[in-house]
Amino acid sequence: MRSVLIPSRGDPITFRLVMHFFQTVWKDEVDKLYVNVNSSCEKEVIDYIESFCKDPKVVFSYDDHFLDHGNSLTKMFKQGSEDLIAFMEDD
Q1: What pLDDT was estimated at residue 68?
Q2: pTM value > 0.90
Q3: Does residue 24 register a pLDDT over 90?
Q4: Pairing mode of beta strands 58-63, 84-87
Q5: What is the percent of the chain with per-residue pLDDT over 90, rounded to a whole number?
Q6: What sign results for the dihedral spanned by CA atoms 46, 51, 56, 57?
Q7: Cα distance between residue 28 and residue 51, in whole Å
Q8: Buried b / exposed e across 14-34, counting CB within 10 Å, b at 16+?
Q9: Of 8, 12, 44, 58, which cross-links 53 as Cys (Cβ 3.0–4.6 Å)?
Q10: Could you count the other beta carbons within 10 Å of the beta carbon of residue 59?
Q11: DSSP string over 39-70
Q12: Cβ neighbours for 45, distance < 8 A, ≥ 6 positions apart
């Protein structure tokens, strides 16, 4: 099984682009996509980002404060059990 981990600071423009390419290009290449948005963004921004994560392959989590990069990746890594894992940036 294959997964991708994407930590995000909550930029809705770049995140929307990443999810567009997930849906149109590489969705069939992975079994799970873990997304962790860690930001103090407004609720409307987080809701907008989460709206692109409704696919059954996507596991969305949110922390209302900034996590350092390693802690965000560790959090997502512990959620899954896939054999192959790729780390991806949304910027």
Answers
A1: 86
A2: yes
A3: yes
A4: unpaired
A5: 90
A6: negative
A7: 20
A8: ebeebbeebeeeeeeebebbb
A9: 58
A10: 17
A11: ----HHHHHHHHTT--STTEEEEEESS---HH
A12: 10, 12, 39
